[in-house]
Protein backbone atom coordinates (compact mmCIF):
# COMPACT_ATOMS: atom_id res chain seq x y z
CA UNK A 1 0.00 0.00 0.00
CA UNK A 2 1.38 3.38 -0.87
CA UNK A 3 1.38 6.15 1.70
CA UNK A 4 -0.99 8.35 -0.24
CA UNK A 5 -3.61 5.71 -1.03
CA UNK A 6 -4.05 4.07 2.30
CA UNK A 7 -6.63 6.35 3.89
CA UNK A 8 -9.75 4.36 3.00
CA UNK A 9 -9.03 1.16 4.96
CA UNK A 10 -8.90 3.23 8.12
CA UNK A 11 -12.57 4.12 7.71
CA UNK A 12 -13.47 0.44 7.54
CA UNK A 13 -11.14 -0.44 10.38
CA UNK A 14 -12.67 2.24 12.62
CA UNK A 15 -16.28 1.42 11.71
CA UNK A 16 -16.46 -2.33 11.11
CA UNK A 17 -16.43 -5.44 13.31
CA UNK A 18 -17.38 -9.02 12.62
CA UNK A 19 -20.62 -10.19 14.28
CA UNK A 20 -19.66 -11.31 17.78
CA UNK A 21 -21.95 -14.09 18.99
CA UNK A 22 -20.46 -13.95 22.48
CA UNK A 23 -22.38 -10.69 22.85
CA UNK A 24 -25.65 -11.79 21.17
CA UNK A 25 -24.57 -9.89 18.06
CA UNK A 26 -24.57 -6.56 19.93
CA UNK A 27 -22.84 -4.20 17.50
CA UNK A 28 -21.16 -2.38 20.37
CA UNK A 29 -18.90 -4.07 22.88
CA UNK A 30 -20.73 -4.32 26.21
CA UNK A 31 -19.29 -2.46 29.19
CA UNK A 32 -17.86 -5.19 31.38
CA UNK A 33 -18.49 -3.41 34.65
CA UNK A 34 -16.61 -5.88 36.83
CA UNK A 35 -13.45 -6.00 38.88
CA UNK A 36 -12.97 -9.76 38.69
CA UNK A 37 -13.86 -12.77 36.56
CA UNK A 38 -15.05 -15.98 38.23
CA UNK A 39 -14.45 -19.62 37.26
CA UNK A 40 -16.50 -22.76 37.66
CA UNK A 41 -13.55 -25.00 38.41
CA UNK A 42 -10.14 -24.54 39.94
CA UNK A 43 -8.53 -25.99 36.81
CA UNK A 44 -9.99 -23.24 34.63
CA UNK A 45 -9.00 -20.63 37.20
CA UNK A 46 -5.40 -21.82 37.28
CA UNK A 47 -5.20 -22.03 33.51
CA UNK A 48 -6.38 -18.41 33.25
CA UNK A 49 -4.01 -17.05 35.90
CA UNK A 50 -1.07 -18.71 34.11
CA UNK A 51 -1.71 -16.62 30.97
CA UNK A 52 -3.54 -13.56 32.22
CA UNK A 53 -2.82 -11.61 28.99
CA UNK A 54 -5.04 -13.90 26.95
CA UNK A 55 -7.60 -14.59 29.70
CA UNK A 56 -9.69 -12.39 31.94
CA UNK A 57 -8.89 -12.70 35.63
CA UNK A 58 -8.93 -9.20 37.13
CA UNK A 59 -9.72 -5.81 35.58
CA UNK A 60 -6.43 -4.22 36.61
CA UNK A 61 -4.85 -6.61 34.13
CA UNK A 62 -7.24 -7.35 31.28
CA UNK A 63 -10.86 -6.19 30.92
CA UNK A 64 -12.75 -7.22 27.72
CA UNK A 65 -14.08 -3.70 27.00
CA UNK A 66 -10.60 -2.21 27.38
CA UNK A 67 -9.06 -5.03 25.35
CA UNK A 68 -11.53 -4.34 22.54
CA UNK A 69 -10.31 -0.72 22.31
CA UNK A 70 -6.67 -1.86 22.55
CA UNK A 71 -7.13 -4.25 19.62
CA UNK A 72 -8.84 -1.53 17.56
CA UNK A 73 -6.03 0.95 18.24
CA UNK A 74 -3.40 -1.69 17.45
CA UNK A 75 -5.06 -2.37 14.09
CA UNK A 76 -5.07 1.33 13.16
CA UNK A 77 -1.44 1.84 14.23
CA UNK A 78 -0.26 -1.45 12.62
CA UNK A 79 0.96 -2.65 16.01
CA UNK A 80 1.00 -6.20 17.32
CA UNK A 81 -0.28 -5.09 20.69
CA UNK A 82 -1.64 -2.05 22.54
CA UNK A 83 -2.16 -1.31 26.22
CA UNK A 84 -4.48 1.50 27.30
CA UNK A 85 -3.74 3.67 30.35
CA UNK A 86 -5.50 6.18 32.58
CA UNK A 87 -3.74 9.11 30.88
CA UNK A 88 -1.14 9.95 28.28
CA UNK A 89 1.40 10.49 31.05
CA UNK A 90 0.58 7.09 32.61
CA UNK A 91 1.30 5.51 29.20
CA UNK A 92 4.46 7.57 28.63
CA UNK A 93 5.94 6.98 32.10
CA UNK A 94 5.12 3.24 31.90
CA UNK A 95 6.78 2.95 28.49
CA UNK A 96 9.92 4.77 29.69
CA UNK A 97 10.10 2.83 32.98
CA UNK A 98 9.91 -0.41 30.96
CA UNK A 99 13.13 0.45 29.12
CA UNK A 100 15.52 2.00 31.66
CA UNK A 101 17.19 1.04 34.92
CA UNK A 102 19.74 2.65 37.25
CA UNK A 103 22.87 3.79 35.41
CA UNK A 104 21.13 4.08 32.03
CA UNK A 105 20.98 7.20 29.87
CA UNK A 106 18.15 8.65 27.76
CA UNK A 107 18.39 10.98 24.77
CA UNK A 108 15.19 13.04 24.57
CA UNK A 109 14.06 15.76 22.17
CA UNK A 110 14.21 19.15 23.88
CA UNK A 111 10.80 20.26 22.54
CA UNK A 112 8.94 17.18 23.85
CA UNK A 113 5.75 17.65 25.92
CA UNK A 114 6.68 19.51 29.15
CA UNK A 115 5.69 16.85 31.73
CA UNK A 116 7.50 14.20 29.65
CA UNK A 117 10.69 16.29 29.85
CA UNK A 118 10.15 16.74 33.61
CA UNK A 119 9.78 12.99 34.03
CA UNK A 120 12.87 12.16 31.97
CA UNK A 121 15.17 14.95 33.06
CA UNK A 122 14.21 15.62 36.71
CA UNK A 123 12.13 12.77 38.13
CA UNK A 124 14.18 9.85 36.77
CA UNK A 125 17.38 11.32 38.28
CA UNK A 126 16.29 9.95 41.66
CA UNK A 127 16.61 6.45 40.19
CA UNK A 128 20.06 7.20 38.79
CA UNK A 129 18.85 7.55 35.19
CA UNK A 130 20.62 10.35 33.31
CA UNK A 131 19.42 12.15 30.22
CA UNK A 132 20.49 14.56 27.49
CA UNK A 133 18.01 16.91 25.82
CA UNK A 134 18.75 17.54 22.14
CA UNK A 135 17.39 19.49 19.20
CA UNK A 136 15.91 16.54 17.33
CA UNK A 137 15.74 18.25 13.94
CA UNK A 138 19.14 16.78 13.10
CA UNK A 139 19.89 13.07 13.52
CA UNK A 140 23.54 14.08 14.02
CA UNK A 141 22.56 15.87 17.25
CA UNK A 142 20.98 12.65 18.49
CA UNK A 143 23.98 10.54 17.41
CA UNK A 144 26.44 12.89 19.14
CA UNK A 145 24.43 12.71 22.39
CA UNK A 146 24.60 8.89 22.56
CA UNK A 147 26.65 7.34 25.36
CA UNK A 148 27.64 3.70 25.81
CA UNK A 149 24.89 3.48 28.48
CA UNK A 150 22.15 5.08 26.33
CA UNK A 151 19.16 2.72 26.35
CA UNK A 152 16.39 4.96 25.02
CA UNK A 153 15.86 7.62 22.37
CA UNK A 154 12.61 9.45 23.18
CA UNK A 155 11.02 11.32 20.26
CA UNK A 156 7.93 13.41 19.62
CA UNK A 157 7.27 14.28 15.99
CA UNK A 158 6.01 16.85 15.35
CA UNK A 159 6.48 18.60 18.69
CA UNK A 160 3.37 20.36 19.92
CA UNK A 161 4.54 23.99 20.34
CA UNK A 162 7.11 24.55 17.55
CA UNK A 163 6.06 21.62 15.31
CA UNK A 164 9.62 20.42 14.78
CA UNK A 165 10.08 17.00 13.18
CA UNK A 166 12.58 14.21 13.69
CA UNK A 167 13.56 11.89 10.85
CA UNK A 168 11.90 8.82 12.37
CA UNK A 169 13.33 6.23 9.95
CA UNK A 170 16.87 7.56 10.43
CA UNK A 171 16.48 7.69 14.22
CA UNK A 172 15.13 4.13 14.26
CA UNK A 173 18.02 2.90 12.12
CA UNK A 174 20.60 4.62 14.32
CA UNK A 175 18.99 3.22 17.49
CA UNK A 176 18.73 -0.34 16.14
CA UNK A 177 22.40 -0.34 15.14
CA UNK A 178 23.27 0.36 18.80
CA UNK A 179 20.62 -1.81 20.50
CA UNK A 180 18.74 1.28 21.75
CA UNK A 181 14.94 1.38 22.10
CA UNK A 182 12.97 4.21 20.43
CA UNK A 183 9.67 5.68 21.65
CA UNK A 184 7.65 8.24 19.67
CA UNK A 185 4.81 10.38 20.99
CA UNK A 186 2.41 10.30 18.02
CA UNK A 187 -0.42 12.32 19.61
CA UNK A 188 -0.35 15.12 17.03
CA UNK A 189 -0.47 13.05 13.83
CA UNK A 190 -2.55 10.11 15.19
CA UNK A 191 -2.36 6.74 13.36
CA UNK A 192 -4.45 8.36 10.61
CA UNK A 193 -1.52 10.51 9.45
CA UNK A 194 1.62 8.80 10.77
CA UNK A 195 2.55 5.23 11.74
CA UNK A 196 6.03 5.30 13.28
CA UNK A 197 6.17 1.51 13.83
CA UNK A 198 6.26 1.10 10.05
CA UNK A 199 9.35 3.33 10.02
CA UNK A 200 11.16 1.04 12.47
CA UNK A 201 10.26 2.78 15.76
CA UNK A 202 9.84 0.35 18.68
CA UNK A 203 7.04 1.92 20.76
CA UNK A 204 4.38 4.52 20.02
CA UNK A 205 2.59 6.46 22.76
CA UNK A 206 -0.47 8.68 22.50
CA UNK A 207 -2.30 11.06 24.71
CA UNK A 208 -5.69 9.55 23.79
CA UNK A 209 -7.12 12.62 25.54
CA UNK A 210 -6.37 14.58 22.36
CA UNK A 211 -7.54 13.50 18.89
CA UNK A 212 -8.37 9.85 19.53
CA UNK A 213 -10.99 11.01 22.01
CA UNK A 214 -11.77 14.21 20.16
CA UNK A 215 -14.61 15.03 22.56
CA UNK A 216 -12.65 16.78 25.35
CA UNK A 217 -14.45 14.62 27.91
CA UNK A 218 -11.85 12.01 28.88
CA UNK A 219 -8.21 11.68 29.87
CA UNK A 220 -6.51 8.54 28.52
CA UNK A 221 -3.35 7.10 26.98
CA UNK A 222 -2.02 4.13 25.03
CA UNK A 223 1.30 2.36 24.34
CA UNK A 224 1.65 0.36 21.11
CA UNK A 225 4.35 -1.86 19.64
CA UNK A 226 5.53 -5.44 19.35
CA UNK A 227 3.87 -8.15 21.43
CA UNK A 228 7.16 -8.70 23.19
CA UNK A 229 7.68 -5.10 24.36
CA UNK A 230 4.03 -4.30 25.13
CA UNK A 231 3.26 -7.53 26.99
CA UNK A 232 6.24 -6.80 29.22
CA UNK A 233 4.70 -3.40 29.98
CA UNK A 234 1.32 -5.09 30.57
CA UNK A 235 2.84 -7.51 33.06
CA UNK A 236 5.05 -5.03 34.89
CA UNK A 237 4.18 -1.32 34.69
CA UNK A 238 0.45 -1.83 34.00
CA UNK A 239 -0.01 -4.39 36.77
CA UNK A 240 2.45 -2.94 39.30
CA UNK A 241 1.98 0.82 38.95
CA UNK A 242 -1.67 0.36 38.08
CA UNK A 243 -2.52 3.43 35.96
CA UNK A 244 -5.23 1.48 34.16
CA UNK A 245 -8.12 2.44 31.90
CA UNK A 246 -11.62 1.58 33.15
CA UNK A 247 -14.25 -0.27 31.07
CA UNK A 248 -16.45 2.83 31.05
CA UNK A 249 -13.72 5.02 29.61
CA UNK A 250 -12.89 2.35 27.03
CA UNK A 251 -16.53 2.16 25.89
CA UNK A 252 -16.70 5.94 25.64
CA UNK A 253 -13.46 6.02 23.62
CA UNK A 254 -14.67 3.25 21.31
CA UNK A 255 -17.52 5.57 20.29
CA UNK A 256 -14.94 8.27 19.58
CA UNK A 257 -12.78 6.00 17.48
CA UNK A 258 -15.55 5.41 14.92
CA UNK A 259 -15.24 9.00 13.69
CA UNK A 260 -11.47 9.45 14.05
CA UNK A 261 -10.66 9.33 10.29
CA UNK A 262 -13.58 11.63 9.52
CA UNK A 263 -12.65 14.17 12.18
CA UNK A 264 -8.96 14.16 11.22
CA UNK A 265 -9.74 15.01 7.61
CA UNK A 266 -11.87 17.94 8.77
CA UNK A 267 -9.23 19.18 11.26
CA UNK A 268 -6.61 18.89 8.51
CA UNK A 269 -8.54 20.87 5.91
CA UNK A 270 -9.69 23.60 8.29
CA UNK A 271 -6.28 24.04 9.96
CA UNK A 272 -4.56 24.38 6.57
CA UNK A 273 -7.06 27.05 5.53
CA UNK A 274 -6.57 28.99 8.77
CA UNK A 275 -2.76 28.55 8.70
CA UNK A 276 -2.62 29.93 5.14
CA UNK A 277 -4.81 32.84 6.17
CA UNK A 278 -2.64 33.62 9.21
CA UNK A 279 0.52 33.58 7.07
CA UNK A 280 -0.82 36.68 5.29
CA UNK A 281 -1.65 38.72 8.42
CA UNK A 282 0.43 41.82 9.27
CA UNK A 283 0.83 40.75 12.93
CA UNK A 284 2.18 37.29 11.98
CA UNK A 285 5.92 36.76 11.45
CA UNK A 286 5.88 33.05 10.80
CA UNK A 287 3.43 30.15 10.88
CA UNK A 288 4.73 26.85 12.30
CA UNK A 289 2.73 24.18 10.49
CA UNK A 290 4.50 21.14 8.97
CA UNK A 291 2.19 20.98 5.94
CA UNK A 292 2.98 24.53 4.78
CA UNK A 293 5.68 24.74 2.11
CA UNK A 294 7.34 27.46 4.25
CA UNK A 295 8.02 24.93 7.05
CA UNK A 296 11.77 24.13 7.03
CA UNK A 297 11.07 20.39 7.33
CA UNK A 298 8.14 20.29 4.93
CA UNK A 299 9.84 17.67 2.69
CA UNK A 300 10.53 15.32 5.60
CA UNK A 301 6.91 15.71 6.65
CA UNK A 302 5.75 14.58 3.21
CA UNK A 303 7.94 11.47 3.48
CA UNK A 304 6.91 10.28 6.92
CA UNK A 305 3.34 11.59 7.29
CA UNK A 306 0.39 11.39 4.97
CA UNK A 307 -1.51 14.32 6.39
CA UNK A 308 -1.58 16.94 9.11
CA UNK A 309 -3.83 17.68 12.06
CA UNK A 310 -5.47 20.77 13.51
CA UNK A 311 -2.86 22.20 15.89
CA UNK A 312 -0.24 24.75 14.85
CA UNK A 313 1.43 27.90 16.12
CA UNK A 314 2.45 31.28 14.81
CA UNK A 315 5.03 33.82 15.92
CA UNK A 316 4.32 37.50 16.28
CA UNK A 317 6.43 40.60 16.89
CA UNK A 318 3.58 41.85 19.10
CA UNK A 319 4.17 41.40 22.83
CA UNK A 320 2.21 38.69 24.70
CA UNK A 321 0.08 41.37 26.49
CA UNK A 322 -1.17 42.60 23.12
CA UNK A 323 -1.86 39.09 21.81
CA UNK A 324 -3.69 38.25 25.04
CA UNK A 325 -5.97 41.25 24.38
CA UNK A 326 -6.55 39.76 20.94
CA UNK A 327 -7.31 36.35 22.47
CA UNK A 328 -9.77 37.99 24.89
CA UNK A 329 -11.72 39.30 21.91
CA UNK A 330 -12.00 35.96 20.12
CA UNK A 331 -15.55 34.63 20.29
CA UNK A 332 -15.23 31.13 18.83
CA UNK A 333 -11.73 30.31 20.12
CA UNK A 334 -11.65 29.53 23.83
CA UNK A 335 -8.58 30.13 25.97
CA UNK A 336 -7.31 26.79 27.28
CA UNK A 337 -4.69 24.06 27.32
CA UNK A 338 -5.04 20.67 25.63
CA UNK A 339 -6.29 20.19 22.06
CA UNK A 340 -7.71 17.56 19.74
CA UNK A 341 -11.35 18.17 20.60
CA UNK A 342 -14.29 19.56 18.63
CA UNK A 343 -13.63 23.08 19.91
CA UNK A 344 -11.15 25.69 18.73
CA UNK A 345 -8.63 26.87 21.31
CA UNK A 346 -5.93 29.51 21.70
CA UNK A 347 -2.96 30.02 24.02
CA UNK A 348 -0.51 32.94 24.01
CA UNK A 349 3.05 32.44 25.29
CA UNK A 350 6.23 34.52 25.31
CA UNK A 351 8.44 33.61 22.34
CA UNK A 352 10.98 30.88 23.20
CA UNK A 353 14.52 30.13 22.04
CA UNK A 354 13.29 28.14 19.06
CA UNK A 355 11.35 31.14 17.65
CA UNK A 356 12.71 33.60 15.08
CA UNK A 357 14.77 36.40 16.63
CA UNK A 358 12.14 39.12 16.04
CA UNK A 359 9.33 37.09 17.62
CA UNK A 360 7.97 38.24 20.98
CA UNK A 361 4.92 35.96 21.20
CA UNK A 362 4.20 32.37 20.29
CA UNK A 363 0.50 31.75 19.75
CA UNK A 364 -0.88 28.24 19.47
CA UNK A 365 -4.21 27.58 17.77
CA UNK A 366 -6.23 24.40 17.77
CA UNK A 367 -8.67 24.37 14.88
CA UNK A 368 -11.86 22.57 15.87
CA UNK A 369 -14.83 21.36 13.87
CA UNK A 370 -16.63 24.71 13.55
CA UNK A 371 -17.15 26.43 10.17
CA UNK A 372 -13.71 27.44 8.91
CA UNK A 373 -15.01 30.71 7.43
CA UNK A 374 -16.53 31.59 10.83
CA UNK A 375 -13.17 30.88 12.48
CA UNK A 376 -11.28 33.09 10.04
CA UNK A 377 -13.83 35.90 10.48
CA UNK A 378 -13.41 35.55 14.24
CA UNK A 379 -9.61 35.84 14.07
CA UNK A 380 -9.92 38.92 11.84
CA UNK A 381 -12.60 40.70 13.90
CA UNK A 382 -10.55 40.22 17.09
CA UNK A 383 -7.49 41.81 15.47
CA UNK A 384 -9.57 44.66 14.05
CA UNK A 385 -11.03 45.28 17.52
CA UNK A 386 -7.61 45.27 19.21
CA UNK A 387 -6.15 47.59 16.55
CA UNK A 388 -9.11 49.99 16.91
CA UNK A 389 -8.68 50.03 20.70
CA UNK A 390 -4.97 50.80 20.18
CA UNK A 391 -5.61 53.70 17.82
CA UNK A 392 -8.25 55.13 20.22
CA UNK A 393 -5.65 55.11 22.97
CA UNK A 394 -3.12 56.69 20.63
CA UNK A 395 -5.53 59.49 19.54
CA UNK A 396 -6.61 60.12 23.15
CA UNK A 397 -2.94 60.63 23.99
CA UNK A 398 -2.48 63.20 21.15
C1 LIG B 1 -1.39 16.14 26.46
C2 LIG B 1 -0.16 15.51 25.97
C3 LIG B 1 0.44 14.44 26.65
C4 LIG B 1 -0.06 13.96 28.00
O1 LIG B 1 -1.30 13.34 27.91
P1 LIG B 1 -2.35 13.30 29.12
O2 LIG B 1 -3.45 12.49 28.56
O3 LIG B 1 -2.72 14.73 29.43
O4 LIG B 1 -1.67 12.67 30.27
C5 LIG B 1 1.53 13.84 26.09
N1 LIG B 1 2.05 14.26 24.92
C6 LIG B 1 1.52 15.29 24.24
C7 LIG B 1 2.15 15.71 22.96
C8 LIG B 1 0.41 15.95 24.75
O5 LIG B 1 -0.09 16.99 24.09
UniProtKB/TrEMBL annotation:
<dbReference type="InterPro" id="IPR000277">
    <property type="entry name" value="Cys/Met-Metab_PyrdxlP-dep_enz"/>
</dbReference>
<dbReference type="GO" id="GO:0047982">
    <property type="term" value="F:homocysteine desulfhydrase activity"/>
</dbReference>
<feature type="modified residue" description="N6-(pyridoxal phosphate)lysine">
    <location>
        <position position="210"/>
    </location>
</feature>
<comment type="similarity">
    <text>Belongs to the trans-sulfuration enzymes family.</text>
</comment>
<protein>
    <recommendedName>
        <fullName>homocysteine desulfhydrase</fullName>
        <ecNumber>4.4.1.2</ecNumber>
    </recommendedName>
</protein>
<dbReference type="InterPro" id="IPR015421">
    <property type="entry name" value="PyrdxlP-dep_Trfase_major"/>
</dbReference>
<dbReference type="InterPro" id="IPR015424">
    <property type="entry name" value="PyrdxlP-dep_Trfase"/>
</dbReference>
<dbReference type="GO" id="GO:0018826">
    <property type="term" value="F:methionine gamma-lyase activity"/>
</dbReference>
<dbReference type="Pfam" id="PF01053">
    <property type="entry name" value="Cys_Met_Meta_PP"/>
</dbReference>
<dbReference type="InterPro" id="IPR015422">
    <property type="entry name" value="PyrdxlP-dep_Trfase_small"/>
</dbReference>
<dbReference type="GO" id="GO:0005737">
    <property type="term" value="C:cytoplasm"/>
</dbReference>
<dbReference type="GO" id="GO:0019346">
    <property type="term" value="P:transsulfuration"/>
</dbReference>
<dbReference type="GO" id="GO:0030170">
    <property type="term" value="F:pyridoxal phosphate binding"/>
</dbReference>
<keyword id="KW-0663">Pyridoxal phosphate</keyword>
Amino acid sequence: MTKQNDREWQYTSAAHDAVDERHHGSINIPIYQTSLFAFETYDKFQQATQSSQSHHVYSRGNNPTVRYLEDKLAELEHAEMAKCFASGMAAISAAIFSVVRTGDHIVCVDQAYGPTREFVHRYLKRFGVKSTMVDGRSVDNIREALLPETKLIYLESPTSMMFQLQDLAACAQLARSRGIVTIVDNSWATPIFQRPLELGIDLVVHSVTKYISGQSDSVAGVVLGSGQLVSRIAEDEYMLIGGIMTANTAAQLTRCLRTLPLRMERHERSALAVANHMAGQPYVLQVNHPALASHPQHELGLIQMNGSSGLFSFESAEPPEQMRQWANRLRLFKIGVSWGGFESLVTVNPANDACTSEARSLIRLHIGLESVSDLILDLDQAWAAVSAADSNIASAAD
